[in-house]
Amino acid sequence: MGKTFSNFIKLSISVVLLVFVAGASVPAANRPVNLAAGSFSPDHLTLSWTQDPGKTQTFSWRTGSSVKLGLLQYAKTSDKAAFLSRAKSVAATVQKLSSDFGRTNLDYVTLTGLEPGNTYLYRVSDGKNWSTLHSFKTEPMVTKSFKFLIFGDSQSSDKKYTPWKNTLQNAYKFNPGARFFVVVGDLVDRGKNNTDWNAWFDGAKGVIDSIPAMVVRGNHETDRAFWAAQFKLPQNGPPGAKGLTYSFDYRDAHFVMLDNTEENETIILNTQKEWLANDLKNTNKTWKLVFFHKPPYYSKAKRANEYIKTAYGPILDKYHVDVVFNGHDHAVARTLPMYGDKSVESPSQGTIYYITGRSGSKYYKDSSRKSWDTFFYNPTDEPNYIVAEVSGDKLTLKAVKQDGTSIDTYSIKNVVATL
């Protein structure tokens, strides 16, 4: 009798814990957002990295302006029923943000001391309402290959951002092992408009809270403070562009994210050039991949961006960047290997420039194949994305339509540069 009663108590506690974790509060995603009221459940939950992907994870989310304390709970466990008994709590740093919808809080936490190659459960709170449980994985110590996703401009005239939502969700569904994703600028059409941002984040739910978003600012994200508050990114960039220009490593690849919006032309031509050269010079990774919004090798008519080519080209040549990924023109275009603004025979002698298409609703009818392109496709029929896979000395890039149809597949074998 005593043993039976004890087992009954244990089972009851487990059930209570599971119910509490899974549904004690209504999920934030199902609650209406009323910024004017100054209080709503946590939303815009986003993962990113600001430090080592193997041992840290950064989180950011939005709460009402009246909230005093944001919290994050996490535990290294796959057992949801045991989450509450194992979870550690961390108080968030709170940043105030003014927008067209009123004042809100942006909360963020960076966890350190995590174990590489592990899965963690987590949830966030405004001190009263908890999000549902989510999970994330730290970078493994050893892996033969890894995959990540690249999206062209996701801006949309559709106020619900349905094209962006479907493109991202399909890409993640078809590539469940993707470690993180990149958007190469112009995430939204109106950079300081909460209607656009609410729709963008809503479309990203289920992905952006599971794998990090390492994003690039475009010319539609005109407000620096608004951008920096929403996306917590590495602060290793040059003065005046921290969190806008940055770099990070994942396994044997070095990623560089540049900010080449119009308002920063002076930084592009001066501070960013010096920082870019030093950054590329000091990496020993096999792969060097660079991302920025406006393409030096364009596809749209009358938009050459020669000043960007002049600023970055010689540095990208000198340190033999393997691929440069761009947006802005909303087409899919892959150049021949380029060096000194001329095509060369092999990727070992130059850099591939890849315009990544569009993941939102906007496209241009005047984009066309140029003399430097070896592949061109204008996605006027539906959005697309890029699947990138690094496997030892091989990098494979696949351009895919929203529905999964293949557009382009291209592979590079990394060899000692013969410049």
Topology:
Layout: H1 2-23, E1 43-48, E2 57-64, E3 71-75, H2 83-86, E4 88-91, E5 93-99, E6 102-111, E7 119-125, E8 134-137, E9 145-151, H3 162-174, E10 181-183, H4 194-204, H5 224-230, E11 246-250, E12 253-257, H6 265-269, H7 271-281, E13 287-291, H8 306-318, E14 323-326, E15 332-335, E16 338-339, E17 342-343, E18 352-356, E19 373-377, E20 384-391, E21 394-401, E22 406-413
Parallel strand pairs: 9-10, 12-13, 13-14, 14-18
Antiparallel strand pairs: 1-2, 2-6, 3-4, 3-7, 5-6, 7-8, 9-20, 11-12, 15-18, 15-19, 16-17, 20-21, 21-22
Helix pairs in contact: 3-4, 7-8
Tell me what you see in this structure.
The protein has 419 residues and is α+β, with helices and mostly antiparallel strands. 21% of the residues lie in helices and 29% in strands. The longest helix is centred in the N-terminal third of the chain and has 22 residues, at 2-23. A hairpin with a 2-residue loop joins strand 11 and strand 12.
Which outline best applies?
A: globular
Order of helices and strands: HEEEHEEEEEEHEHHEEHHEHEEEEEEEEE
Cα radius of gyration in angstroms: 22 Å
Main beta sheet strand tally, sense and closure = 7 strands, mixed
| Strand-residue proportion | 25-35%
* Spatial gap, N to C terminus: 81 Å
Q: Tell me how many strands there are.
A: 22
Q: Count of helical segments?
A: 8
Order of the strands making up the biggest sheet: 11-12-13-14-18-15-19
**Protein structure class:** alpha+beta
Quaternary structure of the protein = single chain
